Amino acid sequence: MSYSIGEFSQLVGLSADTLRYYEKENLIYPNRDKNNRRVYTDEDKSWLLFILRLKETAMPIKQIKTYARLRYEGDKTSQERMHLLLEHRKFMLEQRRTLDENIDHLNRKIANYQKQLNERQGIQS
Amino acid sequence: MSYSIGEFSQLVGLSADTLRYYEKENLIYPNRDKNNRRVYTDEDKSWLLFILRLKETAMPIKQIKTYARLRYEGDKTSQERMHLLLEHRKFMLEQRRTLDENIDHLNRKIANYQKQLNERQGIQS
DNA sequence: ATACTTGTTGGAGTTAACTCCATGTCAAAT
DNA sequence: ATTTGACATGGAGTTAACTCCAACAAGTAT
């Protein structure tokens, strides 16, 4: 399957402008037809979805760019890419640790609020 | 204990400019001394550390501002604040779900790379 | 043939969250 | 008495990640 920028935009949930922006930033460059229009493939799709995963875990575009460059350079860079992924996994695990800690803290904070509200309730009744 | 902006800056790991910026955004307003200089207290400290937790979990300053406003309005708003915290907990749990999913996906991706590299190794030897 | 739709580019504008800077004030050190 | 140092304010500048727009191109619908 192949998609125009409009279709692709729908498919992945990004605006056409954003797609063109990503292209300018060298994250993804689709082929063009005889009319110079962008033609996205299913491969572009899975690649973009991966990019979105990276974004979802707060990887800045600059860093994604590095990965993209390696990818477009082909097979010979797979070791490097793997290294990058391992690094990113570390980062994500760290992120999860922080998140868990914050959830914990929030839970305690909420429990406190609850206690206080109950006490006040007690006084009023 | 009370701190000048410089000391406080060290204490919480934000630049003085950032602290003044947060003040402009109404996240935190310390008292002033007779000389109009900011005087931060330990209460300001724990409040700011809480702000940083919220930031760490990607709460935008605008939303933190809402919470700050309620806080500075005093006890009568604690119900509202609690509601806000509950909402934020939902958001954080959602964040964790996404993160776990992405870690999973990344693990599979890494496993794939590993397999491919092994296969190539196999061919070469 | 003309209008409409969807695309193209280059470049300007926007928002969030800082960050930097010029100019000025005051207390402390020399 | 002057220099130094930390701080004050107002406002400009920066970076990331879009978002919008004007002007043009080409295929499609009426």
TrEMBL record, chains A, B:
Annotated Pfam families: MerR_1
Coiled coil location: 89-123
Membrane-spanning intervals of the chain: none
Entry superkingdom: Bacteria
Signal peptide: none
UniProt-listed SUPFAM superfamilies: Putative DNA-binding domain
Keyword DNA-binding carried by entry: yes
UniProt domain HTH merR-type: residue ranges: 1-70
SMART domains: HTH_MERR
UniProt keyword terms in alphabetical order: Coiled coil, DNA-binding
InterPro entries linked: DNA-bd_dom_put_sf (IPR009061), MerR-type_HTH_dom (IPR000551), MerR_fam (IPR047057)
Protein name as catalogued: MerR family transcriptional regulator
The organism of origin for this protein: Sporolactobacillus shoreicorticis
